[in-house]
Amino acid sequence: MRRILYLKRLRSVTSHPSTLADASIGEVFTVSQVVAPLGAPEWASQLEDIGFLSGERVAVMARGMPGGDPLVVRVGLSTFALRMAEAACIYVSPVPRASA
């Protein structure tokens, strides 16, 4: 519960999404880190295995309807469908427009 409240506060003070789950369609980001939820520690290694590594470029290409779940995500040259819970494990930072 504390972690959820912390993440909500963090999102409210930053000008960009802190996780891929919050990203807008078409924006380009760099993966900062992958953090697994307490109930599924294996998610971090699974996401890293498919290419969500620190420094890799990533973008949300589309969202499912209704509710925006799952997300269609491009990382490197690969495209994946991720659930919102998985996308929330991927922390991102914005890429400046000139280098996007």
Protein architecture, described:
With 100 residues, the protein is of the alpha+beta class. The protein has a single domain (2-99), classed as SH3 type barrels (Roll), CATH 2.30.30. 24% of the residues lie in helices and 29% in strands. The protein contains three helices and five strands, in the order H-E-H-E-E-E-H-E. The protein has helices at 2-13, 42-49, 84-87, and strands at 28-34, 57-63, 71-75, 78-82, 90-94. The protein has a five-stranded antiparallel beta sheet. A hairpin with a 2-residue loop joins strand 3 (71-75) and strand 4. The protein is globular, with a radius of gyration of 13 Å. The termini are far apart.
Quick synopsis:
With 100 residues, the chain is an alpha+beta fold.
Number of distinct beta strands: 5
CATH level-four homologous superfamily name: Ferrous iron transport protein A (FeoA)
| CATH class bucket | Mainly Beta
Give the helix level as a range of percent: 10-25%
Mean pLDDT: 83
Helix run count: 3
- Termini Cα gap: 35 Å
Round the Cα radius of gyration to an integer and report it. 13 Å
Return the CATH topology.
SH3 type barrels
β-strand percent reads: 25-35%
Provide the descriptors you would attach to this structure in a database record.
100 residues; SH3 type barrels; five-stranded antiparallel β-sheet
Present the secondary structure layout:
Layout: H1 2-13, E1 28-34, H2 42-49, E2 57-63, E3 71-75, E4 78-82, H3 84-87, E5 90-94
Antiparallel strand pairs: 1-2, 1-5, 2-3, 3-4
